[in-house]
Amino acid sequence: MRKIFMMLLCFISESFFCQTYHFDYKCYDVETQLKGNYKGNKRANIIYFSSENKNIIAYNYFFSQQPNRNFIIYDYHANLAFSYSINRDSNFSSLNFNQKSQINKYPDELIIKRIDVQNIGENQFIIKTYSSLKNKRSNLELKVTVMKSDYPMPVIHFLDLNPNIHSKIYDALLANLDSENYRLMEVVSNHRNGVVMLDDFSKCEKINLKILTDYKSES
């Protein structure tokens, strides 16, 4: 009886303090600067997402000056972010917890009052954002290629701009598609400041990854 009680206590404790996140897809983001001070520079990021829960997404990325990659889980429903370090090979046995934090909300880096979306071919679109309803000059231009998928489009953050701006862009794009079941294949971003970036998302694969986050790690 004591053994059963202890097992039950451990189960309740784990359920209370821990959260399991399940990811069933990962896509590679091969990021290349086409124009700007660092023209030709490349960086490979990995995005993990759930086809059944758009509130959960994880990013696995690195900067050249860092010895390890960064792995961050965003839970937008709980407004929590879990930060880890992981080795360059993205071997999850090397996953090391750093911190849990609230997802901060920052003011929009761009004023966007209008978004125009133009279909320029099969599954290709030009998206332009404007700082006012009457402006003729856009403050951001995107050339987006999408393809049909078996799941709703995950909201991948491919710009160095906050989630609110990404939400506006995705909403405008989805309004021009016949369903939500598409995924990004390629995005060329013209920031209108001399920097043009290419994000290639063409390589995606089905996975079965579960990460157990330990709420106790914060204390």
Report on the structure:
The chain is mostly beta strands. It contains 2 helices and 12 strands; from the N terminus they run H-E-E-E-E-E-E-E-E-E-H-E-E-E. Strands 1, 2, 3, 4, 5, 6, 7, 8, 9, 10, 11 and 12 form a 12-stranded antiparallel β-sheet that branches. The longest helix has 16 residues, at 2-17.
Keywords:
single chain; 219 residues; mainly beta; 12-stranded antiparallel sheet; 2 helices; 13% helix; globular; disordered N terminus
Could you give a quick summary of the protein structure above?
The chain is mainly beta and 219 residues long.
Given as residue ranges, the uncertain stretches (5+ residues, pLDDT < 50) are 2-16
Average pLDDT number: 89
Quaternary class: single chain
| Series of H and E elements | HEEEEEEEEEHEEE
Q: Label the overall shape.
A: globular
Total of DSSP H or I helical runs spanning 4+ residues = 2
Strand residue percentage: over 45%
- The radius of gyration computed from the alpha-carbon positions, rounded to a whole number of angstroms, is 20 Å
Could you give the distance between the termini?
32 Å
Tally the beta strands.
Answer: 12
Largest sheet: 12 strands, antiparallel
In percent, how helical is the residue content? Answer: 10-25%
Quickly give the structural class: mainly beta
